[in-house]
């Protein structure tokens, strides 16, 4: 049964096929939502939240992942506004709103006053993709990490997260949970790094993946090794490894103001497809 006059309801396992058909209209931009749907079958207990769907004439036309990450899926501004209306009727559970810029803006314009002041707002993030071999030579020293790399890898992950997000993932006793996440990525073969005499000098991870695309996160070079070209050759290696082992298209999104990172990705061969926005609490 539809739960509002706008035709929005919580999706369930029976809606999985229709949801995937919707999200696969743009399988690279929607890789996070597709990955979550495929790994949870849209069951709220596995999602840690809900997937909302908006229907028009009985047809699913847009969706919204509502958990720690709130992510619009194939949602235009009108769809996002409808999801925002539903969100205002409940307590905020999301720590991040992220997705295509227009949808995030339309959602935030309606909920912002009620949801309180965010920790950070990033309204111009470039969504990039590469679906061919990199344009520069990959660094042959970049490899898939192993559990034995954890003593060097984990502090680098904490440093990257803190630099990028502005708060440590260990805040509030979160170290065990974050360490578990890092180990999970290692066990999946989704963690990549280069080590120089035992020191980690480049790293990146796959955040989520489907048979069509993989999304990269956590690209990092320690400050004292920046400017040496490690990120360019390292990302070229990650692209090659991911395309060989996981998915044919590799995506990420980067802040507009991060000119060094944008230059590095451009040299590797990434191209812009759309603009993202992120609101963090």
From TrEMBL:
EC number: 2.3.1.-
InterPro entries, A to Z: Acyl_CoA_acyltransferase, DUF4081, GNAT_dom, UCP21603_acetyltransf
GO MF, one example: acyltransferase activity
Keyword Iron: no
Domain annotation N-acetyltransferase: ranges: 140-281
Keywords from the named record: Acyltransferase, Transferase
Protein name as annotated: GNAT family N-acetyltransferase
Organism field: Nocardioides bizhenqiangii
